[in-house]
Amino acid sequence: MEEKPLTPPRSTQSAPRARPEADLPASFQRFCSVARTVEILSDPWSFLVLRECFFGTRRFEKFQGMLGISRTTLAKLLKKLSALGLLRKEQYSWRPPRFEYRFADKGRELYPVMLTLLKFGDKWLCGESSPPLRLFHKECGYYCSPLVVCSHCGIELIPRRVHYRDVPGAGSNPREVNWTRCRRVSHPAPLERVRPCSVARTLLVLGDKWTFLILRDAFFGIRRYEELRARLGIATNILTDRLARLTEQGILVKMLYQENPERFEYRLTEKGKDFYGPFIAMMRWGDKWLAGGKPSLKLRHRDCGQDFQPLVVCDHCYQELDPRQMDFTLNYVL
Ligand SMILES: [Zn+2]
Ligand SMILES: [Zn+2]
């Protein structure tokens, strides 16, 4: 069977309307906290510094030794991450004056996001080998895996059990977002520098904001090329490229939904559905730290009927995971 090319029909003038059953928010062009979170994390060097910081690196020379970059580049990066409010610079010696970099709350709270990315990478991107690292929860004394649960009832969150609704007045015009800086991260080398890392591998799948926005819409039930194009205001070549990559990576599957003429839609695979944890954890972080406390969407959990926050907890004791209570075993030698 010949597949139709991925380009949209030329005659299309207006965007198809959202299907009413899909629980769609009224506007998808809102400022999206997930996209902005991805923007921060998908910058490879920022990611690497944050990752090493979670591994306990604090001092300039140590960062430089781990990452093997020039002093100037590292100084710029640390300055940028401090300006973003993710790290704070603290003096630890006065004579001579010396500083170290520690997480500010905003940065430390990226930990649950990192854990969900780690879990995805461990499950789907390690091939035959065992995951690079095992997490140990000091609080309960067990090796653990992160779970994303409803803050109200504690049940693990899955996409079809979550209802989204718009919050009137929240968000802002997408033209304020600098979309042009959006580039795919396509080479694993810089991200896996120093150590093998499931989070880095997941970020590679994620690639860029567009990929994440397509996934976000997939979680909202948007499956068709034209709908995606119209909602995201994305260039057709970028949309075609990202859909092809997501299909290649087994995140989406292209399915025939109409025979004559042949039409296809993109559905999430089991692997794709497992992106829900990272997605919703990023949404929470972005809403809290990047949206000025004004989330553009409210989430309601169908299982308990309540508005909720997604929490990343230990699958053994169900306590929220905090980097200060975690230890890890490396399955590799540095
Ligand atoms: Zn619930
Ligand atoms: Zn635990």
Task: Outline the structure in words.
With 334 residues, the chain is of the alpha+beta class. Helices cover 37% and strands 19% of the residues. It has helices at residues 33-41, 44-54, 60-67, 71-83, 105-108, 111-124, 188-191, 198-206, 209-219, 225-232, 236-248, 270-273, 276-289, and strands at 87-94, 97-103, 133-137, 142-144, 146-150, 162-166, 252-258, 263-268, 297-301, 306-307, 310-314, 326-330. The strands form five sheets. Strands 4-3-12 form a three-stranded antiparallel beta sheet, with no helix packed on it. It has a three-stranded antiparallel beta sheet with strand order 6-9-10, with no helix packed on it. The longest helix has 14 residues, at 111-124. The protein is globular. The N and C termini lie far apart (50 Å). Mean pLDDT is 81; it is low at 1-30 and 169-186. The site of one zinc ion (ZN) has 9 residues, from loops.
User: What is the number of E strands?
Assistant: 12
| Principal-axes shape call | globular
Which sequence of strands runs across the widest sheet? Answer: 4-3-12
Bound molecules: zinc ion
Spatial separation of the terminal alpha carbons: 50 Å
Rg of Cα set: 21 Å
Mean pLDDT: 81
Helix content: 25-40%
Low-confidence stretches: 1-30, 169-186
Give, in order, the helices and strands: HHHHEEHHEEEEHHHHHEEHHEEEE
Beta-strand percentage range:
15-25%
Q: By helix and strand content, what is the structural category?
A: alpha+beta
Question: Biggest sheet, open or closed, and with what strands and sense?
Answer: 3 strands, antiparallel
